[in-house]
């Protein structure tokens, strides 16, 4: 679960929503609105509306999403983790997302504006978003999609030793891609007449993605930011290479933070080529330090707040694209 | 110029939901009218419509709709449809099967779709009312594409992944005749090899009742008397809805695929009355010129035409106006083709009428019959001299003329020849 959901343990869960008492009329309207959802969705919505207890919220949101997903894809949602993607995995297009939002607004008595929707790409994003809305917390930083220019601008590592072509960073992890071009200088000698991407460089690439996460995605203390020049490699464990990677292969990299406490951050990482496992690293540990920051955290080039218009251009956001 | 053929048809109409039952209804002159429950109120004086059986589309929520078994339509497809979108979607599936088209034949740059419908007054009202009462944030994101004129082409083009030409036609009751006509041009000019033509109308209270304001609907409560084109006692049209899809293909595609066409589409003509926004010219001037243009552009003489499927909707003025036009086109040549109006059986399908009735003509040519004009007890004297068929002939027409006319005095005539 995203940090922001867990970071509110126990107390203060009953919210001070400005709800009027839940009348029988409201229940009838709720039943009508949720008539195509599972009975448990309706029950959760009733409980939420009666008590304002946000613990009922995920069941409502998942129930509403399920109702709009084609029946043959619903199984995916049953045992979904929060990384399940709305568009790619569930076939939800931007118009369906609008339908989901309208129903969620109606049932949970919220109002959501279009800008807030753009960054919701996974089931986890949606849950976190609605939870923050209900609890009145600031919205989590959205998943950011970073083109190569942006990566080059923030990273302490630079070409020809930068092994990320593109990346996306959220508060829960980072994903990236790198295409082995065959022009990498070390491939001339690794190996003779047989270019193979060194496993050590693949580990380096994962480390670079973890650096990018620390700079662009990691939660920090107010007024502080992680200094780009303070991050260094300290160690790794459980590294296994499963597949040779050669020019033409596109490496799909992902890292997730496991522990993070100044001055150490530990990540798990994986590289795939298509569906094939290439490298697994159980632990990659980096050191880092905070530097004073006059502006908001990670505002290295001014994109800390919900991303401005151009920031999502690398990937189509959830946006209603009407050819009207 | 490439020749153009009708190679596939699909029907959801008041007289049947497939080609075989429609053909049987036409041959046996069996109507599709019923007393319509929403009209059984003291302040509504018309009582009967041509009902669509086997479908339920009364709800404003497409997910409530039911349709006959055998069709599978996903939620994401049906959610943006009007009722007539569902009818035409089913007709499209039939037409594809009838023409034996594969997926690759449907979705390619040489295959297009033209459509005609009056939009969905029921959904327009529902979504607009919701917007005014609850605000735009509570409106369905698909309200517009489900309701405005054009909904039929938007939905069919997206659902069937059409990649060629697509657009909608809006000339009221001549709309889908225009759609066929311009689809013919699209193929004969070599721009497309195959065209789907779809017509649709909701045919429910909201689509039909507004015509009561014009006093143009029949007030008969007896379904067997309500629609009687050319009868002296006719008192207005009976509304209907449905969806019909026709497939037009170039000669080279017919040959390549080994298709078995119903008939050849020979050409068409059009002309406008330039007279009144809603009343047809008393002498049928526009209709006459449209027929002459169709004959001229198809290089067919009036003497070759052996059947006319009339536009005649059972209104007082319209039927006489068309009768005069027919007299002047055929009477002057001294020829008397058989004439009937199948609206006596189906009711008036408005934007759907043209393609529905072209489909009927294709069925007759293949089925070997020419249907009579039903429900005539006393022929209007204004029709004297015309060979208005009173019963079905067991013989297929060879050359068929199809008339369609719409508001604003738009007139279209299409010519077909049996294969």
Describe the structure.
- The complex is a heterodimer of chains A (324) and B (419).
- Chain A is α+β, with helices and mostly antiparallel strands and 324 residues long.
- Chain A has two domains: 21-135, Non-ribosomal Peptide Synthetase Peptidyl Carrier Protein, Chain A (Orthogonal Bundle), CATH 1.10.1200; 144-299, Hotdog Thioesterase (Thiol Ester Dehydrase, Chain A, Roll).
- In chain A, 31% of the residues lie in helices and 20% in strands.
- Chain A has helices spanning 3-6, 24-33, 39-51, 57-68, 74-78, 94-108, 114-117, 123-135, 148-154, 199-216, and strands spanning 144-146, 166-170, 173-179, 224-226, 232-241, 250-261, 264-273, 276-287, 290-292.
- Chain A starts with a helix and ends in a 32-residue tail after the last strand.
- Chain B has two domains: 4-257, Thiolase/Chalcone synthase (Peroxisomal Thiolase, Chain A, domain 1, 3-Layer(aba) Sandwich), CATH 3.40.47; 266-418, Peroxisomal Thiolase, Chain A, domain 1 (3-Layer(aba) Sandwich), CATH 3.40.47.
- Chain B is globular and about 65 Å long.
- The A-B interface holds A 36, 68, 70, 91, 93, 95-96, 98-99, 102, 105-106, 111, 320, 324 and B 63, 74-76, 79, 137-138, 140-142, 144.
Summed up:
By secondary structure, chain A is an alpha+beta fold. Chain A contains ten helices and nine strands. Chain A has helices at residues 3-6, 24-33, 39-51, 57-68, 74-78, 94-108, 114-117, 123-135, 148-154, 199-216, and strands at residues 144-146, 166-170, 173-179, 224-226, 232-241, 250-261, 264-273, 276-287, 290-292.
